[in-house]
């Protein structure tokens, strides 16, 4: 029964990892920017929601709107104010972009800490209650919602990218910015769209995970580490790969606890990542490219 | 080029200033002024930023009240105090930097800190530089063996836990124990103490589940604890991050852990007491006697109400206020014996005086720098703590 519960926990945690990573993966696949600041967007989403829905008491709906608007604006500021200034075109300095992005995480984390204090905030406490699945198996409503949201986001994104005009253009940009500009003109607004869309995709993760575990200002960096691990394992920029690798990492971390004590799960997880990188340097699935 | 030369000039001037400061005697009083025999700096190397900052803020509040009490001459104290707050972030490296700054730059003879692991990290410097190091918020039994300059104003876990185990096993008849513990100094120390005490009391440990201090997802911890079928679960987390305990308790309850919960005094916080899942939890606590009518307690209550209205006294505030007051009393003692105020004379005075009547009653130092007080066994009921039983010093099991 413990193994079953741990496996169930692993699936839930893994899909939450995927939910965090999908936006990051989408941004990278389209713009080639390692947007580590997505970790800061995660924290920003949680605190915007908390401020509006709980501190100001304006309700869940307006809280969600506030979270979406704040991270959307954050995406715009990052693209226009940081990455564009550094130069994220065809020959951008990968390290400079990464360093700037990481710096923004630290700045945002500390600004939120100054504004709200360091204690974690809980987004939707009602979702932290659990429900029995029969026997001794239990799962929180947040866990169930997280599974549904991950599946929904992946399918929704798939439909948008495959079936809509915008999706076709974004995939074209992902394939080659040079060709895109020759064919469709300036890519700037589509890059911006990728940042806004990718940033907004972190909102469900922040609200769901924050309802059980809480979100602290310092989580921006922690989430950044998860983003890197999940994205590299899945195949950088591959959305399905991100979902698959998130699931795999969650399962491995939890099932490792069956036989090993605390502290061993990251050792197992990152050892497997190292082995995977040797065997499949491009990750589980091929990196996403346009058609 | 001019800018570089100016920069080099400034750097040289700064270096000269630092060198001049460094060459001053270590652990002196506030150097070079007319108050050299009357004033003393007391540093607080506390988590003032990061996830543990809320603890540090409470400790600093206590220190402020202690300094105010000394400077107001409460209890006849004549030594004036200067407060030097330094940020440890609850991490060893910044704490060590803070200790070096306190000792070598600020020249404070007394340093207050928090957390078992940080106290262990700072103790060698304290002993080497003859600086008094007082901690009032950590419980690892290892803190009793850190040298002559290290003092504790919170009873260590090995003093608290006999009372708790005694009550739970002998009174509540709970005999199947699972221990949840953080994989750091305090958590492992608690586990080690319980491994001795629980069999002595006639009960047994049926599970040991480790957690990480940075962990926030405890769903798997809950699954493992539930599988042990314990009738009591002891929470041995350090609580190094504010709300870590509330997150843990909530997730254990939602994860199906229905057993009686128990904990040591470090778990006691207003957030835990108010938490739905913590209702019924049994824990240890110091005997805070806020209605005492002595001069220190009355001043403390007045200052607390003034500085932070609505805040209830707790050991995180009281112990740090007391630590500062004790240092001031010891400094007075040294002065009255014609000695200079420095870490060596203050430590000697603390060992000589031993018994300090301060806020909420007496603090009795043992030769190893630990403190003994009666221990309350408390239960959280309807958002309040009720005393189930008070054990005298050294009470429980045997």
Q: What is the molecular shape of chain A?
A: globular
Total DSSP helices of chain B: 12
Separate helix tally of chain A: 12
Q: Which structural class best describes the helix and strand composition of chain A?
A: mainly alpha
* Rg value of chain A: 19 Å
Radius of gyration of chain B: 22 Å
Name the helicity range of chain A: over 70%
The helix/strand class of chain B is alpha/beta
Helix content of chain B: 40-55%
Mean pLDDT of chain A: 87
Distance between the termini of chain A: 46 Å
Percent strand of chain A equals under 5%
Task: Report, as a whole number of angstroms, the end-to-end distance of chain B.
Answer: 76 Å
Query: Which strand-content bin applies to the residues of chain B?
Result: 15-25%
3D shape of chain B: globular
Indicate the mean pLDDT of chain B.
85
Order of helices and strands of chain A: HHHHEEHHHHHHHH
Major pleated sheet of chain A:
2 strands, antiparallel
Unreliable sequence segments of chain B = 1-37
How is the largest sheet of chain B built, in terms of strand order? 7-6-8-9-10-14-15
Task: Report on the architecture of this protein.
The complex is a heterodimer of chains A (291) and B (398). Chain A contains 12 helices and 2 strands. Chain A is mainly alpha-helical. In chain A, a hairpin with a 5-residue loop joins strand 1 and strand 2. The radius of gyration of chain A is 19 Å and the shape is globular. The N terminus of chain B is likely disordered. Chain B is globular, with a radius of gyration of 22 Å. In chain B, the strands form 3 sheets. Chain B has a 7-stranded mixed sheet, with helices on both faces. In chain B, strands 2-1-3-4-5 form a 5-stranded parallel sheet, with helices on both faces. Chain B starts with a helix and ends in a 7-residue tail after the last strand. Chains A and B meet through helix 1 of A and strand 7, helix 7 and helix 8 of B.
């Amino acid at each position: 029964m413990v193994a079953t519960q741990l496996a169930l926990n692993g699936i839930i945690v893994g899909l939450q990892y995927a939910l965090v990573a999908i936006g990051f993966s989408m941004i990278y696949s389209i713009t080639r920017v390692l947007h580590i600041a997505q970790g800061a967007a995660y924290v920003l989403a949680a605190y915007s929601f908390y401020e509006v829905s709980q501190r100001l008491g304006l309700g869940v709906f307006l809280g969600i709107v506030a979270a979406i608007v704040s991270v959307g604006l954050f995406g715009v500021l990052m693209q226009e104010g940081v990455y564009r200034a550094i130069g994220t075109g065809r020959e951008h300095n990968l390290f400079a972009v990464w360093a700037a992005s990481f710096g923004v995480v630290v700045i945002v984390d500390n600004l939120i800490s100054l504004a709200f204090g360091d204690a974690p905030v809980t987004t939707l406490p009602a979702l932290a209650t659990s429900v029995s699945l029969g026997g001794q198996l239990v799962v929180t409503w947040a866990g169930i919602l997280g599974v549904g949201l991950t599946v929904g986001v992946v399918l929704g994104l798939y439909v948008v990218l495959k079936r809509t005009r915008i999706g076709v253009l974004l995939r074209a940009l992902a394939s080659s910015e040079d060709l895109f500009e020759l064919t469709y003109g300036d890519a700037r607004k589509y890059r911006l769209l990728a940042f806004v869309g990718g940033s907004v995709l972190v909102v469900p993760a922040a609200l769901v995970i924050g309802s059980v575990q809480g979100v602290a200002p310092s989580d921006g960096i922690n989430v950044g580490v998860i983003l890197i691990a999940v994205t590299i394992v899945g195949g950088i920029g591959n959305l399905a790969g991100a979902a698959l690798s998130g699931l795999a990492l969650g399962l491995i971390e939890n099932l490792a606890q069956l036989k090993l004590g605390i502290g061993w799960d990251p050792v197992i997880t990152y050892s497997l990542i190292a082995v995977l990188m040797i065997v499949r340097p491009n990750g589980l699935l091929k990196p996403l490219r346009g058609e | 080029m001019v800018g570089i030369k100016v920069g080099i000039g400034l750097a040289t001037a700064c270096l000269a200033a630092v060198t001049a400061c460094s060459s001053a005697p270590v652990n002196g009083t506030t150097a070079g002024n007319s108050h050299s025999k009357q004033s003393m700096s007391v540093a607080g190397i506390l988590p003032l930023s990061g996830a543990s900052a809320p603890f540090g803020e409470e400790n600093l509040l206590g220190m402020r009240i202690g300094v105010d009490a000394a400077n107001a001459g409460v209890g006849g104290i004549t030594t004036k105090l200067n407060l030097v707050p330094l940020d440890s972030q609850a991490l060893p490296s910044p704490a060590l930097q803070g200790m070096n700054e306190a000792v070598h730059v600020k020249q404070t003879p007394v340093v207050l800190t928090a957390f078992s692991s940080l106290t262990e990290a700072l103790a060698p410097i304290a002993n080497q530089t003859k600086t008094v190091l007082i901690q009032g918020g950590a419980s690892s039994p290892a803190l009793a063996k850190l040298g002559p300059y290290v003092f504790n104003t919170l009873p260590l876990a090995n003093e608290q836990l006999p009372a708790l185990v005694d009550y739970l096993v002998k009174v509540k008849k709970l005999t199947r124990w699972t221990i949840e513990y953080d994989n750091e100094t305090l958590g492992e120390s608690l586990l080690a103490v319980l491994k001795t005490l629980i069999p002595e009391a006639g009960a047994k440990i049926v599970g040991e589940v480790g957690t990480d201090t940075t962990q926030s997802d405890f769903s798997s911890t809950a699954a493992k604890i539930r599988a042990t079928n314990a009738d009591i679960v002891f929470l041995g987390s350090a609580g190094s991050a504010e709300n870590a305990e509330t997150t843990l308790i909530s997730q254990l309850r939602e994860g199906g852990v229905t057993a009686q919960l128990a904990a040591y005094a470090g778990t006691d916080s207003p957030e835990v007491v108010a938490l739905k899942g913590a209702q019924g939890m049994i824990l240890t606590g110091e005997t805070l006697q806020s209605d005492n009518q002595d001069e220190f307690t009355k001043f403390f209550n007045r200052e607390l109400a003034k500085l932070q209205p609505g805040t209830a006294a707790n050991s995180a505030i009281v112990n740090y206020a007391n630590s500062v007051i004790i240092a001031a009393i010891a400094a007075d003692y040294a002065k009255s014996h014609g000695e200079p105020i420095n870490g060596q004379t203050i430590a000697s005075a603390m060992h000589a005086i031993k018994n300090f009547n301060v806020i909420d009653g007496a603090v009795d130092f043992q030769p190893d720098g630990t403190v003994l007080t009666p221990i309350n066994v408390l239960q959280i009921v309807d958002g309040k703590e009720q005393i189930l039983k008070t054990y005298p010093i050294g009470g429980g099991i045997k």
